[in-house]
Amino acid sequence: MDWTKAKNILIAAFLITNIFLLSVLYGGNQPEESAGISDQYATQTIEFLQEQQIELRTALPMFAPSLNSVTVEYRFFPLQETAYQFLGEDALRVDLHTYENHKGRVTVLEEKILIYENKEKGRMLTNFDEEKLMEMGETFLQTHHLDPEGLRLEQIYFGMEPEYQDEPLHKLVYQQTYQNRFIGESFVHIYIGQRGIVAVEALLLENMRSIGDGTTHTMISAPEALLRTVHQIQQHHSADTPAIITDILPGYYFPLHQKPIAEGDPVESGTAVPAWKIVLKDGKTFYQEAF
């Protein structure tokens, strides 16, 4: 048996148990909409994460909000209509999911995941600051009607995206929100290189509504969510340097891969549940359901 791993599991279980007990006691003196943890357990959590080669570079939320689940529906992208919108009506179908011409390629997966690849090369860009990237992103979203209410720019990354280009790209990460809180796994990703927009990926939701009579439920605490995610983080980040957490936020999570009611029928709607979003420095995002 790997005794080091067993010890770490026991320590994590001990911390989770104590965080839960303390939240019950300490949360009793807090407003109904939140439950709190003590500085002591926040410190213990941070120290445990450090022992696991995980570094926290953002404030650890001390209170957990109370939220309802939310019903959501997918926005569908009809393949031919979407291809003509991006490429023009001379685009030709090349396989079950893809249209293509000299301007680019449009692929729609599961009727709701849009992938656009641009083949046209614009003039070389000289001003590549964050403001310019944001302007380019907003213009593209508005032009192609990919800007639903509540869509928000979350991060901008710079690095290799080998599926689209051999040179580094800027990646603009947008996510939808409901009542000012994120809804994962909705997204728009815009990839920008020296000659303009290279590719775009999108999965969008619509018709979001809270479930129930207004009764809310308190989420698990942020430390508990972190402790439940340690193993996933370690599996993703196997380098000698620590994995760096840059953001921890409460919101909603609607996983993409849900089984359809009948074989061949796409999933049209579902329930987004309260969850914590944990973001690493390299952009990798984990969602921990919060009940």
Automatic annotation (TrEMBL):
Keywords: Membrane, Transmembrane, Transmembrane helix
Domain of life, source organism: Bacteria
GO cellular component, one term: membrane
InterPro entries reported for this sequence: YycI-like
Transmembrane segments: 9-28
Record has Transmembrane helix as a keyword: yes
Domain Regulatory protein YycH-like: from-to ranges: 37-290
Protein name: YycH protein
Organism for this UniProt entry: Tindallia californiensis
